[in-house]
Amino acid sequence: MIFSTPAFLFLFLPPLLLISLFLRRKAQNPLLLLASLLFYAWGEGWLVLLLLGSALGNHFIGLAIENSPAPGRRKTILVAGLGLNLALLISFKYADFFLSNLEPLLRGADLAVGPGLHWHQPLGISFFTFMAMAYLAEVYSRAIPAERNFLHTALFISFFPTVLAGPIHRYSRLRRQLVERRTTPELLSEGIRRFIIGLGKKVLLADTLGRAVDAIFAIPNPGLTAAIAWLGAAGYTLQIFLDFSGYSDMAIGLGRMFGFTFMENFNYPYISRSITDFWTRWHISLSTWLRDFIFLPAAYAISRRIRGDRLLGIRVDSWCYYPAMLLTMLLCGLWHGAAWTFVAWGLYHGLFIMLERQALKKRLKRLGPPLQGAYAMLVVSFGWVLFRAADFAQAAAFWRAMLGFGSGDNREFHPALYADARLVVTLLFSILAALPLFPALQSGYLKLRSASSGAVRVGLQAGGHVLTLAFFASVLLASVMAMAAATFNPFIYFRF
Q1: pLDDT value, residue 314
Q2: What's the CA angle centered on 474, arms 470 and 480, to 5 degrees?
Q3: Residue ranges of the domains in the chain?
């Protein structure tokens, strides 16, 4: 089931929310768990048993870690638990990728190669597996006690707002909320507004951009020109942000409707002034997960094996930083998909992060904010081409065309075929949505209202309420109309 479908908006969410508001607190978690399993089974069928099995297995592994007094045994159980989670992820997501890459070697050794597994990849498996692994790590480090109520563990891993595409939560953040939360009128109102914003981003902007982007990336490589390639790159750069941040907005909004406060997942990444800054703003829940569970442990492990301040004339902090960063970004790319283009995309970003630390940091400071922002957007946009491309040949063809070396002649594939009036308007609104315009307007309005007095303040407050209501009602109505007219278009990150 997808958030941006009539089935969810009109059949699933309203009765669930209504029942939840009138239930006693003790009955809300069982209701939400049942609803979450139904939500997942709606699209994935029997694979809901896989999700439930993951929750059950990690629940008992967490208890085993906590109940083991010997440090060595606790570590063994942790490693086994992490291994089981990785085995689940690899089996369903990466088995065919690894087998297809091993096939030439096996054939060269005259070994028989059977057919690939071709298993269906369960939706959200990367997200709920990472949440489960983080839970075990937090129990092992004694950051939290192991959860003894299976219902809470299962709801944490399978909760329908986050199970398909995050944010990737830590149990330490939600542990108290599972027991003590309350759905206040303020949280409910805020959640509805946030959900509508995300729905508008997805249905009105991202899906419109996606249709043009899909058509452009379907153009044969020899037909690409600079204008077409830049239109495709810019469209996809905006589409993936609006699609994924729109999902995160909806997930965060749904959480607030049911009394949960989730972490933010995006902080206007396209105003970044470097690639390092970009990764503090983009997919924050994943980047912090990778930092805490891959980068920092890897850097620490390297530092423990180097005695002295330098090795081969290179400072220890450099030895720790660069290999750990390279490993982290390689795994980041692989996490996004079982293809070499994703691995290369991760290494591409890792390379720029390392260059910024070593050689570009001082130079970027001298450029000033506008040029810093232009640099970051160029690097990110070229990276998104690699991320979107079907293979390296297509990515290289797009890059050549973007640099002015395309072989197209603008006759068969002209920009006007894709950039109609609707797309141009959508691009403009998408750019505005990617900038912190709304927070700036809200801050200005609040300052103006607080500086006013008497009837002026009352008038501003009433006018603000009317405009806010009209805006959200318009976005919701337009989104519902667009959903009714459009074909099914799932979120981009569902395949990761």
Answers
A1: 62
A2: 150
A3: 6-181, 183-225+238-266+405-496, 275-404
